[in-house]
Amino acid sequence: MQFDRIKVSQADGVGHLVLNKPDELNRMPPAFWQEFPEAINGLDRTGDVRALIISSTGKHFSSGLDVSSFGAAGGNADLDPGRVSERAIRRLADMQATFSALEQARMPVIAAVQGAAVGGGVDLISACDLRYCTQDAFFCIQEINIGLAADVGTLQRLPRLIPEGLMRELAYTGRRMHAEEALACGLVTRVFDDAETMLNAVTDIASTIASKSPLAIHSTKHLLNYGRDHSIDESLDYQAVWMSAVAQGGEIAKHFKAKAEGEEAVYQNLPARD
Question: Which residue range is the domain that position 219 belongs to?
Answer without folding.
Answer: 212-260
